[in-house]
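Forum > Structural Biology > Help requests

Title: Can anyone predict the 3D structure of Catechol 2,3-dioxygenase-like lactoylglutathione lyase family enzyme?

Hi all, first post here. I have the sequence for Catechol 2,3-dioxygenase-like lactoylglutathione lyase family enzyme but no way to get a structure on my laptop. I'd be grateful if someone could post the structure tokens.
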Amino acid sequence: MNVSVSTLSLTVADVEASRDFFTTHLGYRVAMADDGFASLTRDDAAVDIVLLRQGIEVLPAEQRDQRASGLIVAFTVTDLAAEEERLRSGGAPITMPLREEPWGERLFQTTDPNGVVIQLVEWVQASPDA
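Reply #1:
Sure, ran it for you. Structure tokens for Catechol 2,3-dioxygenase-like lactoylglutathione lyase family enzyme below:
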């Protein structure tokens, strides 16, 4: 198997709200879209995002009423503090403030209008005592 692109498909109530959040705050652009559907991409992203409207008929019947919840979309970035400031000043809600874990992970979270949690992460050298 040769994986050429990775895509995360999220079922949400309001495709346009998530699309606008990802394009405005996270630098994604719309690759294609239709009623109840948007495919988002970034040249430097390890994963594309597909947004599907909850209830859309392209989904199998048992999946139509599900929606993205209980998951975290995580992106490893550089200059995490600058990204937090950029998102905060751009009006994105910071739903978990910047913090550093003892194992060397720095992170914060923002949440899109559909409740999709986006976590930005930067790895730092853990202290030898950790």
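The two ends are 39 Å apart (CA to CA). Strands lie at 7-12, 29-34, 37-41, 48-53, 72-76, 94-100, 105-111, 117-123.
Shout if anything looks off.
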